[in-house]
Amino acid sequence: MVNRAGVLALQGNYNQHKRMLDVLGIKNILVQYPRELENCDLLIIPGGESTAISKQIERNNFRHPILNFAKTNSVFGTCAGMILLSSSEKATNLKPLSIMDFKVDRNAFGRQVDSFSGNLCLEFDNTDSFNGLFIRAPKISKLGKGIKILATYKKQPVMITNGRHFATTFHPEIGDDYRIHKHIMGKINE
Ligand code: GLN
Description:
Blueprint: E1 5-8, H1 14-24, E2 28-31, E3 42-45, H2 50-59, H3 63-72, E4 74-78, H4 80-85, E5 102-105, E6 116-122, E7 125-134, E8 139-143, E9 148-153, E10 156-161, E11 166-168, H5 179-187
Parallel strand pairs: 1-2, 1-3, 3-4, 4-11
Antiparallel strand pairs: 5-8, 6-7, 6-9, 9-10, 10-11
This protein binds glutamine.
């Protein structure tokens, strides 16, 4: 079980993640400075704009602290956060952290107007499907060794783990279904 979660609060949907953690009774802080990672055992990198978050990571000297943190702690990235966790190629203004061994195609479903919600199958809970919100979402283009699929949409992987770290192409922090956050929080330090 997680002791204290940090939510990277540089850009994007960090407040919605915080709200979910508050509802679940998980101790958490919004992380704006690298030293604030110190007392956390999980870092959530939210959705938003991966280029903007990447720029802020570099500008605020977060890159090495996050890479160091990830050696012994967990990171959970959603949408843009997942793009940052990936081992996708560097692009202008975007330097993925390569914390997990997978690649993505950004904006793979089109523009903002092509955003949609869909019913996902969760591997860890078959009581009901999960309504996932995809907002200019990435698509996983390559999965490395040791990556386990935790949720699918139309048979495509949309939530993955390597045991320590977690990533979703959609936004589990939006809405009132807490199952994904609850599942991940329970897996930390297991
Ligand atoms: N399309 C965004 C990006 O590439 C991600 C969108 C999101 O996080 N909802 O960064």
